[in-house]
Every structure is written in C-alpha cells, then in structure tokens.
Amino acid sequence: MAMAISPPLAALAIFSLLATVSYAQSVCNSQTFSGRNFALCSDLPSLNAFLFWNYDSAQSTLSIAFVAPPAAQGGWISWAINPTGTGMDGAHALVAFGDGTGAMTVRSYDINGYSLGSGPSTWFQVRTSSAEISSGVMRLFATLVLPANVSTTLNQIWQVGSSVSGGAPRRHDTQPANLNARSTLDLSGRRNTTPVATGNSGLGNREIHGILNVVSWGVLFPIGILFARYLRVFPSADPTWFYLHISCQISAYAIGVAGWATGMRLGSESAGITYPVHRNIGITLFTLATVQVFALLLRPKKDHKYRFYWNIYHHGVGYSIAILGIYNVFRGLNMLGRDAWRNAYIATISVIGGIFLLLEVATWIVVLRRKKSANSTKPYNGQMRV
Fold first, then answer.
1. Bridge partner residues of 36 (DSSP)
2. Is 303 exposed, middle or buried (0-12, 13-18, 19+ CB in 10 A)?
3. pTM more than 0.90
4. How many CB atoms lie within 10 A of CB 118?
C-alpha cells in the first residue's frame, strides 16, 4: 500500500496555503471597548499593537483607539501620522503615559529628527483625547481634525517605550520590532494596512510563529508517526519506514525549535500580554521533543532485554507530543484570530486523520490474515493444516 504524502510536500503545501491567506483577518476584531464603537481595525505588524478607527471624510475627523503594551511598567505608547515621509522625522504624534499619580495623560508632539517638539501638534487638531491601562496594556483614544482634502492614505508610525522622565517619554529601544513599527493606513478601509517598503515580508512575528508550529507539531510530527505505525507492518518497507520516520521527526523538531524560539521572543516583546496555557504547552512540547531526540542515542538493539521498555517510553512520549502539538496549534490559531488559517488546518489534519483511519483498518486486516495463515499451517494431530 503506497503512501501519497511525503514530508517535504506536506510542509510545502501547508506553508503555501497559510502564507497566501489574506492578511486582512486579524485578532483586532475580538477586541471591544466600553461605550466606544469603531468601524475599522488593523492588527499592526509590530510591537503587538492594534489600531481602531472611524473616519468622517465630510468633517475630516478621525477617531482612533491605539492599543499596545508599553515596553515596561511605567512606560509609554505612541501613535503618529507622517504627512511627508515614512519615518519618525516630520511625524505628528500622540503619546500616552501615566502621570505618576495613577492617572493617564495624552500629549501631542511634532517630531523633528529624533527630538520631541514643544507640542502640541501643528498638523492635526486634537478635539478629544484620553487613555487607560489595564492588565499591562495601554489604550489611547483620540478624535483628530485633519487638514481639509487630506489623502485617505497616510503613513503611520507607532512606538512603545519603557520610561517617562520629567513629564516626557524617554527614548525607545532600537530593536527590529521598534524600527519596523510603521506602515500605510487607508482611512477608507478599502485596503488593509500594509507595511511600508522596509524589507518587511508582510508577515508579522506572530504569523511566522504560527506557520512554523503548524508545519512542525501540527503536520510533520503526525505524518512521522504515520510512517512508523503503518509502513513497518510490511517487511519490504524495512528499513525505509525508519528513515522516513526519522527524517520527518527531525525536520519537525528543527522547525518546531524555530517556532518555539519565535514564541519566546514574542513573549519577551509582549509585556502585559500573556497566554500562560499556550506558553506552558509550548515549553512542554519543546522539552519532550528534545528528550525524545536524545533518547535515540540510547535506543537498545531489537533483541536487548530493555528494548520493550524503551518502546513503551518512545511511543508514549511520541503520542503525547502529537496530541499536545495539535491541541496547541488550535489554541494558537484561535488566538491569532485567522479563521481561514484555522479552517485550512482543520482540513489538513482531517485528511491526515482520514489516512490514519484507513491505514489502521488496512493494517489490522493484514495482521489478522497473517495470523490466520500462520495458524492454518501449524501441525494438528501430527498433520499439517491445509
């Protein structure tokens, strides 16, 4: 019985499927604000930030809610428009931070080079502004009056910082996530927010993290188990099944480690935003998979007295990784908020599950026929069964 799936093709298929899904679907749709309604939202591609807005072209007013975790407790968040460029210089910014008394303050600045102007902004008028913080996440609200006949496509910049001194924000970090915190914004909502051409691929760290872990724990690892469980039934497939199994699991482990590393980086960049169950399962998967890989070095020979116990351990840990991996993939896709990605994975894992079921039935038929054939050739009362 030939297999129709190979590890590289499966990985390529799921990666291509996920990478080509529209970037429009975002977790911002799951966020709500008490007493405030916004027609449009965008999951910004850096610093775990979101932007919500309403735009009234007749009145040239823009109402926004900018949501992001500050870089540290006591830090600040900022959202800005640059009408003349794509960087910080020339931007007109709103900055939210705590005033030291427990209240939140919002100020506007014209940015010259890398310095804050004396404020307030001279390009837009701030009609109303406020800010709040809860669970380590800041929310900046403002209604702005933009210049008449302004373009509906604007350059936006956003930023987070770790400290405030003398009633003004201190300089932010210059990590890649900070330097890539800029994009274009279509006020009309006809097009999604897209990164300004700075070498960004259009996929944020969360998307890359998701793709790596779907391919590794969610696809390659179950396929590796499939090879080991069903191909080994056929003597002619030995040792081919073993090499297929090993190549699948080593590839899954390597990709999974990359996915785990991006997850740890996301956690370090996301102060105030935590997913403890998803994180703990991810750490457990990494630990179990690492132990499983190194256990190959201690694998007894087939005729060794401890091989039976090693097999029990190996199979138990392997199935545990598969179950936890698939479960955590679904948790991650739900948090990412991309319905099309989740549906694509449901279809993929359903196909793999269907193949498991078919091969389970087929191999049981083969095994039972072999037993029947073996019994029919055993001596019976001195005669051979025929």
1. 33
2. exposed
3. no
4. 6
